[in-house]
Design a protein that fits this description.
By secondary structure, the chain is α/β, with parallel strands linked by helices. It contains 13 helices and 13 strands. It has two domains: about 130 residues, Enolase-like, N-terminal domain (Enolase-like, domain 1, 2-Layer Sandwich); about 220 residues, Enolase-like C-terminal domain (TIM Barrel, Alpha-Beta Barrel).
Length: about 375
């Protein structure tokens, strides 16, 4: 069913977190996010640009994403015939990088396409391998190990199936040793966010004794080769995150045996089309994948739920309940985790939730319409 985009509405929203979230990059207390609304004949599709407030995870940040969508991605799509959401990525492929900005628009068009067809987003992308996705939690670095243990205890009591803890030099081996001493049987992984180099191989090898599910992206954000060198020296599987921005990168990493698991983030790879390609490459090579998170609002979180229904998402991801992060969600109903640590899909058209427009207006710090 052919359609065209009549206008694109951008919003920057400010949402305070329930509690600060600390990684090797620093602490985040609130999120300034760019939301994208694409409109066709009065029907809206919604997307979220997952870039952070600063260019620390990758080169993108809130302001750069706004400018890229406003001046480059948006104008390319307006009033053009679109046969299906699969066509959208081609309109912006000449833009180097800026995959999060491009992806925020692309996923909005997938949502719009699903709504125009009257089907749920998970069905539109070819998902549906499971009616509930397994849910894990991502825990930032805490002020103390005691604080960390208390947070883990609470998350396990809430039913979450996997604990991911952020690490950095000085907050790694001893922290994990204490976690393992208190919780010997849990599914546990460590996320380094590129905080180490090959000079730290002995320290990283010391993590082998804790039978972790994986160590996520220990080396440089743009590296694949050194990860292959490191993986050969570790028993613990390496999971690649930041360095996998396309299906081609995934193919290279698999060929070099740079890791045994890949985290797929919609924004990082530029939207659903490329995410599906990465998924397919990994599935063909028997490399399991899981869905990573970027402290998304309910819009981005619902998109992640849809993505994680594809068949090779066999490991619990970072898609957890809204209340873990937000004092108030921008949806009329929160995304909730079941007592069994899963999140259910629903059959409503598009991403499956209504937006709380009065609340959204109250947290909007700027907006602009591209026509």
């Amino acid at each position: 069913m052919s359609f065209q985009i009549d206008e694109i509405r951008l919003r920057q929203v400010a949402m305070p977190l329930v509690k600060f979230f600390e990684t090797s990059f620093g602490r985040t207390y609130s999120r300034d996010m760019v939301l994208v609304e694409v409109v066709s004949n009065g029907v809206s599709g919604w997307g979220e640009v997952t870039a952070g407030e600063n260019p620390f995870y990758n080169e993108e940040w809130t302001e750069s994403a706004w400018q890229i969508v406003k001046h480059y991605v948006g104008p390319q799509l307006l009033n053009k015939p679109i046969e299906s959401a699969e066509d959208v990525a081609a309109y912006a492929k000449h833009i180097r990088g800026h995959r999060m900005a491009r992806g925020g628009v692309e996923v909005a068009v997938w949502d719009l396409d699903a709504k125009l067809q009257g089907i749920p987003l998970w069905q539109r992308i070819g998902g549906g391998a499971r009616p509930e996705i397994p849910s894990g939690v991502s825990l930032g670095i805490q002020d103390s190990v005691d604080d960390l243990l208390k947070v883990i205890e609470k998350e396990l009591a809430d039913g979450y199936q996997r604990i991911k803890m952020k690490i950095k030099p000085g907050r790694d081996v001893e922290d994990i040793r204490e976690v393992r001493r208190h919780f010997p049987g849990i599914k546990l992984m460590a996320d380094a966010n590129s905080a180490y180099t090959l000079a730290d191989v002995d320290r990283l090898r010391a993590l082998d004794e804790f039978y972790l599910m994986m160590i996520e992206q220990p080396l440089a954000h743009d590296d694949i080769i050194d990860h292959a060198v490191l993986q050969a020296q570790l028993q613990t599987p390496i999971c690649l995150d930041e360095c996998i921005r396309s299906a081609h990168h995934a193919e290279q990493a698999i060929r070099l045996q740079a890791g045994q698991i890949i985290n797929i983030k919609l924004g990082r790879v530029g939207g659903f089309l490329e995410a599906k390609k990465v998924h397919d490459v990994c599935q063909a090579a028997n490399i399991p994948v899981w869905c990573g998170g970027m402290l998304e609002s309910g819009i981005g979180r619902a998109h992640n739920v849809a993505l994680a229904t594809l068949p090779n998402f066999t490991l619990p991801g970072d898609v957890s309940g809204s209340k873990r992060y937000w004092k108030r969600e921008l949806l009329t109903e929160e995304i909730v985790a079941t007592p069994n640590g899963t999140i259910k899909t629903n059959d409503r058209p598009g991403f499956g939730y209504d937006i709380d427009m009065p609340f959204l207006d109250s947290i909007t710090v700027r907006q602009e319409t591209i026509r």
